[in-house]
Amino acid sequence: MSASPRVVVLDYGSGNVHSAAKALERAGAEVELTADRRAVLEADGLLVPGVGAFDAVMRQLRAVRGDELIDRRLAGGRPVLGICVGMQILFERGVERGVDTEGLGEWPGAVTELPADVLPHMGWNTVEPDDGSVLFRGLEDERFYFVHSFAAQEWTLETQPPFPKPKLTWADHGGRFLAAVENGPLSATQFHPEKSAEAGIALLGNWLRSLR
Question: CA angle at residue 26 from 146 to 79, to 5 degrees?
C-alpha cells in the first residue's frame, strides 16, 4: 500500500488542473483528477484550482456539485486547499466589473479589485506569513507567483476558543491583500504554487505532510 497521501484535484473545467496535478505529484502525492463524489470525499486532501472570472468558476463548480462536496469534506474536518480563484470563491461574494456573485461563504467578506495602478498583479512577490504557519514553514523569505486583479483585502472572521485563530499571510500590490489563509482543515493561496518553482513545490509538500 502506498504511503503517499491521496489527493484529488477537483476537475470541474477550470484552467490549471494538469499543472496543479503535476506539482502535487512532484511534492509527493498520489493524484487523481476527477469530480467523482466518492473519490472527492474519501481522498486525504482535495485541491480546488480556479482560473478566470469568479462568476464563471462558481457556475462551473456548481454544475458538478463541487460546492456540496467542499462543504461535506469541511463538515467532516477533511482538508481542502484552494488556489487562486479557488481561494476567492471561499469568501461570501466576488465583485468583478459590476458583477456581484455569491461565493461559497466559508469565510465572510468580498473579493474586490486591487487598488493598484497596474493590473493584473502578475509575477513574483514576497509574502508575510503569520507566526506558526504550516504552509510557509521554512519558506518565510521565498517569493511566489501571482496572476490576478482581484483579492480579499480584509479579514473579518472572528474565532472564539476552542477554535484556533486562523493563520493569515499577506502580500502587497497597491495595498495589502490576503495571499493565503490557513483555517482548520481549509487552506488557500491567492498565488499559484504550481507556477512558483521550488518554493511552490515545498509549500505543497508542507500541506501534504499536514494531511497525515
Answer: 70
pLDDT tens digits, one per residue of 85-139: 999 999 999 999 999 999 999 999 999 999 999 999 999 999 999 999 999 999 9
Indicate which residues carry an active-site annotation. Answer: 84, 192, 194
CA 24 to chain centre: 14
Residue whose grid cell is 462543504 = 71
- Is this structure's pTM higher than 0.90? yes
Nearest-5° Cα angle at 62, 61 to 64: 75
Write out the three cell numbers for 84.
Answer: 487562486
Strands, E, within the chain: which ranges? Answer: 6-10, 30-34, 45-48, 80-83, 91-96, 99-102, 107-113, 121-126, 143-148, 150-152, 167-172, 176-183, 186-189
16-20 — which CB contacts under 8 Å span 24+ positions? 16/49, 16/51, 16/83, 16/84, 16/192, 16/194, 17/49, 19/194, 19/195, 20/47, 20/49, 20/83, 20/194
Q: Which residue has the cell 484535484?
A: 9
